[in-house]
Design a protein that fits this description.
Number of strands: 6
Distance between the termini: 71 Å
Largest sheet: 5 strands, mixed, barrel
Oligomer: single chain
Strand order of the largest sheet: 1-2-3-6-5
Structural class: alpha+beta
Order of helices and strands: HHHHHEEEEEE
Radius of gyration: 27 Å
Shape: rod-shaped
Number of domains: 2
Strand content: 15-25%
Number of helices: 5
Length: about 160
């Protein structure tokens, strides 16, 4: 127990370095808040607070930072973000046209963005196959295959 009391500052420094290292990999401000909370725990130790008090102060500061400061930092970070969807998110709901008959086992569609995709209809779909020229909508992406359903006429 004496070791913890004598070297608590080393434990705090190790925690701070660990949290900062993890934060540099995640970039979500979570571990940054934990590192700042640990720094506050370290400072409380320099002021003579016992180790259990340091732990409580560090934990309370971390929780407070996570709940109060982190959300506003994330909002500020995402403020100038491009609202356009990208990657798979941009394909969900996209329209296309069947190029090669699409069934539960495969086929091909050309999406509105010009890309040619391997496609299939969902297993629970009433349409077992879609012939060439059929208008479709992307329901999901499973690996490198677009799951498509027939496009409704009025949509």
């Amino acid at each position: 127990m004496d070791w913890i009391v004598q070297y608590s500052w080393v434990i705090w420094l190790v925690l701070i370095l660990l949290f900062i290292t993890i934060e540099m990999l995640s970039l979500q401000f979570t571990f940054l808040m934990l590192a700042i909370g640990s720094a506050i725990g370290l400072l409380s130790g320099f002021l003579g607070v016992p180790w259990w008090g340091q732990l409580l102060i560090g934990a309370a500061a971390s929780v407070l930072l996570l709940l109060v400061v982190r959300p506003s930092l994330l909002r500020a970070l995402r403020k100038g973000e491009d609202p356009a969807k990208s990657n798979v998110d941009a394909l969900l709901g996209a329209r296309g046209q069947v190029v090669q008959t699409v069934s539960n086992h495969g086929g091909q569609v050309r999406l509105a963005n010009g890309e040619l995709w391997t496609a299939m209809v969902p297993v629970d779909s009433p349409a077992r196959s879609l012939g060439p020229g059929t208008s479709v909508r992307v329901l999901a992406i499973e690996g490198a295959t677009a799951v498509v359903v027939p496009q409704e006429r009025n949509a």
